[in-house]
Automatic annotation (TrEMBL):
Residues 6-314 form the Luciferase-like domain. It comes from Rhodoplanes tepidamans. The keyword Zinc does not apply. Keywords: Oxidoreductase. InterPro entries: F420-G6PD/mer, Luciferase-like_dom, Luciferase-like_sf. PANTHER family: 5,10-METHYLENETETRAHYDROMETHANOPTERIN REDUCTASE (PTHR43244:SF1), PTHR43244. Transmembrane segments: none annotated. This is LLM class flavin-dependent oxidoreductase.
Length: 342
């Protein structure tokens, strides 16, 4: 069988805790690997949903985050992830990221140089989970002679979310893996993942770190139906990510690396989508090939295999709409059938 990454699902603050539980139980029943929570600025906090999902499931990993140290101090992260890990009987993981700079600025803080803040966070959280007394005064965050008053699991995995080279290197040096956002091509994810692995090796760390990629998923027995849904899922993100690409070189590279889509084509598509045109008519299959799993179940697994070949170890798939739970079951069945053919 062609090598496949693990398949999990992405949950976020735009969903109610009840909706998250419904999708989490579908993923648990379908044999998927984990739940990846995305806590976005000023949306619902993910901890109530993560706790509810921990109690409603038995097998899937509960990956809480992506926590932003500018809105949640690293000591609080350690306290909370330790409790979620206890609640889930050792299934928790933590992911951290610096958030969107414009949102952080609304809090009166500056996230223009996120790497020192993430480094402080990793040092503080890792030490606390190991049961150490942490005495750290960093450029961004401080914990002076702090120790958790309970024994947490020392090896709770910690991943860093980001796309920049410095963030990837930091993940290799101190974290257990890297989370790559939506609207990043497989080629781009593979490159930053390789950079992280090189940094890990240079730091004298053994084993390989995880590379987790966010992707929308649109699956249907009728390929045309799935492709239309996939184009609309990607289309909802194109204007925002194209605008981000005008400010950040790494964001633009993520859109164009290996996709065969020229910058002028992205600009034209973004303009048409902002004008209200239907993404199913605006975008061609290059966009779904690059930024989604879309098509029949076999199409989706073939696309997942391309990410595995690039070095991605797990896909965190976003399922939306009334058929989301059924679509999760469809992907799980296809994954099980593929494993049976191996």
């Amino acid at each position: 069988m062609t090598s496949l990454p693990q398949l999990g699902i992405r949950l976020h603050g735009g969903q109610t805790p009840g909706a998250c539980v419904a999708l989490a139980t579908a993923a648990d029943a379908a044999g998927l690997s984990g739940l990846w929570f995305a806590e976005n600025a000023f949306a619902r906090g993910i901890l109530p949903a993560a706790a509810a999902c921990a109690l409603a499931t038995r097998r899937v990993a509960i990956n809480a985050g992506v926590f932003n140290p500018f809105s949640r101090h690293p000591t609080m992260m350690a306290m909370e992830i330790g409790a979620i890990d206890e609640l889930s009987n050792g299934r928790a993981g933590l992911s951290i990221g610096s958030g969107i700079a414009s949102a952080v600025a609304k809090l009166g803080m500056n996230a223009e140089k996120p790497v020192p803040a993430l480094r402080d966070t990793l040092v503080i959280v890792r030490g606390l989970l190991r049961g150490e007394e942490v005495d750290h005064a960093g450029p961004a965050f401080t914990a002076r002679k702090v120790r958790l008053d309970h024994a947490a699991r020392a090896d709770i995995p910690i991943l860093v979310a980001g796309r920049g080279n410095l963030t990837a290197r930091l993940a290799g040096e101190l974290a257990d893996g890297l989370i790559v956002s939506n609207m990043c091509s497989a080629a781009f994810a593979g490159r930053v993942g390789a950079l992280m692995q090189e940094a890990r090796q240079a730091a004298g760390r053994t084993g390989r770190a995880r590379v987790v990629q966010y992707l929308p998923c649109a699956v249907h027995r009728d390929r045309a139906v799935a492709l239309a849904a996939g184009k609309r899922a990607v289309g909802a993100m194109v204007p925002g990510f194209w605008a981000l690409g005008q400010r950040l070189a790494s964001a633009k590279e993520a859109l164009t690396d290996g996709t065969g889509i020229a910058e002028a084509e992205f600009a034209a598509a973004a303009a048409r989508l902002r004008a209200g045109e239907d993404a199913a008519a605006v975008l061609d299959e290059r966009y779904t090939d690059a930024f989604a799993l879309a098509g029949t179940p076999d199409d989706c697994l073939a696309a997942a295999a391309r990410y595995a070949a690039a070095g991605v170890t797990e896909l965190a798939l976003t399922f939306e709409g009334e058929t989301a739970a059924a679509d999760i079951a469809t992907i799980g069945a296809a994954l099980g059938a593929a494993a049976g053919r191996a």
